[in-house]
Structure formats: structure tokens, C-alpha cells
């Protein structure tokens, strides 16, 4: 593995440093304005950004993990395409008009975070995708890990095919008021009732089986276990030509 860079970066050094294709460990960035820098394809391990402003930077395919923190920072007009933001802590942060596409927030802790602008085809996970959803102890063979309860404001954001899953409590998240975003409270009870409605609409066994499989696969899958609230983006089914899917979506809108 390439030797990791460990240091505190000041404003003057940031201006001339090449941050792409490198490994950073235990680094700090404090009270700096960072414009038009390329951080792509780098790995940041336990690095800390405090009171910084990032403008028009490239974080494509960059990975942040092994703890670390972003505190009291602003990110404006940056590229987060295929970025992995892992088990770090993000607090008092503003994301404004960035490019989030195929971005993974993978076990990230977030408090007082605001998103403004488009977020496309991205994932917010409470438990990292590399970990099991279950914890083991001496008395219980397997139980779900505690839920993370992020505090996030998406009211000024445009969410398109964004997944919130794997051990999240969404009750402290403010979502945009859009007709295609369906919030489901107590999903286990909701989908039991919803499946009964589907059975009344579809008379044949094949369609009834399809409804159950569609719910289990697309609406309430194993990654959603234990979550008291779900967010479903109904637009993700717009291109389906299956009339059964269209009827299910219409029923969801009315429920």
C-alpha cells in the first residue's frame, strides 16, 4: 500500500498540494477555503475538516472512512460522483448545489446537516454495507443493531432515486414535500394492510404472488428491517410497462 500522508494542512500548502490518487491518514484541515482542487480517487482515513469551505472541488471516487469528522463546513458546487462517505461524523454542515450521483453515505453519523440541490441515485445507510445488520451477544444469537437517528434537512433538495436504508430512524429528517415521495410509518403493519388491498384488486393467483414479491423486493426488503419509517420514491417505477406495477403505484399514492 502507498505510504499514507499524515499532517495538518494550512491554507498556503493547500493551494499548491496535489490531493488526487493519494492516501491520507489522521490529517486535519482547519479554517480553510478550498477552491477548485482535485481530491479524486483518494482515500481519507480518520481525517478532520473543521470550519472549512469547499468550492468547485472534485471528490469523484474518493473514500472517507475509519472515523474522522466534518464539522461546521460548507460544500458548494463540488463533484461527489461515486464518492463513498463512510463511518465518519458530519455535524453543522451545509451541502449546496453539489453533484451527488451514485454517492454512498455508508454508516455516516449526521447531525444538523442541510442539503440543497439535486441528489441522484444515491444511498444513505445507517449500518455500513460492509457490516451485518445484526449484532450478536451471549444471550441472543442474533438481533438488529441499534438504529442511527440522523438530523438532516432535505427541504431544499431534489431527491431522485435516493435510498434510505440499513438501520436508519428517519423521524428527525425533513424531506421535500413532493408527490412522488411516499413516507410509510410502521412499514410492517402498512404493507400487511397494503397486501390485503392488492389481493382485493387482483383476482388471479399469479398477480397476487407478483404483488407480494414486488413488495418484498422493491418496497420493504431485508435492508429495511427494524426501521420504523420508510421513504419510497414512486418515480423509480415510472418507466415500468407492467400494468400491475402501475396499479400498485397508484394504490400506494392513494394509501
UniProtKB/TrEMBL annotation:
It comes from the Bacteria. Gene3D superfamilies: E3 ubiquitin-protein ligase SopA. This is Pentapeptide repeat protein. It comes from Sphingobacterium detergens. The lineage of its organism: Bacteria, Pseudomonadati, Bacteroidota, Sphingobacteriia, Sphingobacteriales.
